[in-house]
Amino acid sequence: MENADGQLFSDALMRVIKEKFHYVDSDFTGRKRLYFDNAGGSFRLKKAVERFAEVDSTPDNPERIHEISRKLQVIQKCGVEDARLILNASDGTVYASLTASGAMFQLVEAIAGAVPGTNLVTTVLEHPCSFDAMTMYSEKLGKELRVARSNQATGGVDVEEITSLIDSETCLLSVIYASNITGAKLDLERIVRAARAIKPDLYIVVDAVQHAPHGVIDLKKTPVDAINFAPYKFFGCRGSGISWLSPRAAKLPHHKLAAKPTDFWDLGSAAPAQFAVVSEIVDYVCWLGEQFEPSSDRRKRFVAGMKAIGLHERALLTRLLNGTEELRGLRMLPRVQVLMDHSDLTRRDLILALAFEDIAEVDAVREYERRGVIVYERVSTSLYSKRMLESFGLRGAVRISPLHCNSPEDVDAFLRITADIAETVASKTGRS
Length: 432
Known about the structure:
Aspartate Aminotransferase, domain 1; 13 helices
């Protein structure tokens, strides 16, 4: 049975993990801080940064035939296979674009423009790159856009809410794997199964950028047609988005050089350094998995590593919410509210949305920064937040997003600082 409260890494393993990442306990100036905004970025693996610099510094073109070029080709091939390993995809096409957002527009354009049907289905919780792409091409193609509503109690979207919008004329379903505001995970396995029961040949696109660093992705269990992730939010480097397309999706008309194969999606010169980063990410997760479930199979080690990450992060989430014998958790702190606080933590990634009774979101974020904590405000004036927040009946929230390389001591420090912010504001306003 899955551990509902999670399982922390040992102290010894926690120290080793922290050492593998840049700037977990301080910023690059040396100032001590807690960086709890990994939903907007991510701690970087030292080896990923080093490997990127090493591979990217070579002037050689990977499309040539001399020795170094051939070595670059091997690096890229290994990175492609590791991208497949992350997704558990044995076929289809992997390609790298400048950003995962740019890739989403390309994916939606190719499918919506080529697949017959009168409507597209998505959810209100999509990142703007997904939602805006669906909106743009529904308008351009004269197809109806149907939007599934959020569940204000869970912070996610119910399976039935999505499937109620699908019919025989739906040509594309686009869903986010997990909310980047509430951390609520959509039940992708049930969504795919139920959607295809209504329309067996339905094309499905998934935005996994937010979820990929937190849990196992398995396309054998969730056979979609396209999915993407961003290495920079997955312990890697900025500068690329990695996408996968099913064989049938990859062959749809798309931007490509005429002489290339029909399922080829790369445009321009390859960037082996970006694929080297993917391999470093997988190497790290496999190393972590080896600490728990040794195996000669790379995918099994990777899955074990991601499961360990998920359990540690759930234990951090439990501690944030419920505290310890010595510290009150966020659920118990006066003048602090955990928004969309669903009790089933197995359905949540390590992201929290908070509200303070007496302080606006932007002001709360500044108070955190004064105390050495980086979090982020999600407000209805932001193009990245407005639609999602309004679906929950909110005008704003303070988003908290640690990562598995954070320790329980980091959480305890955050709880003390949050209590101090709430008490300080109360004293200024005369509240007690």
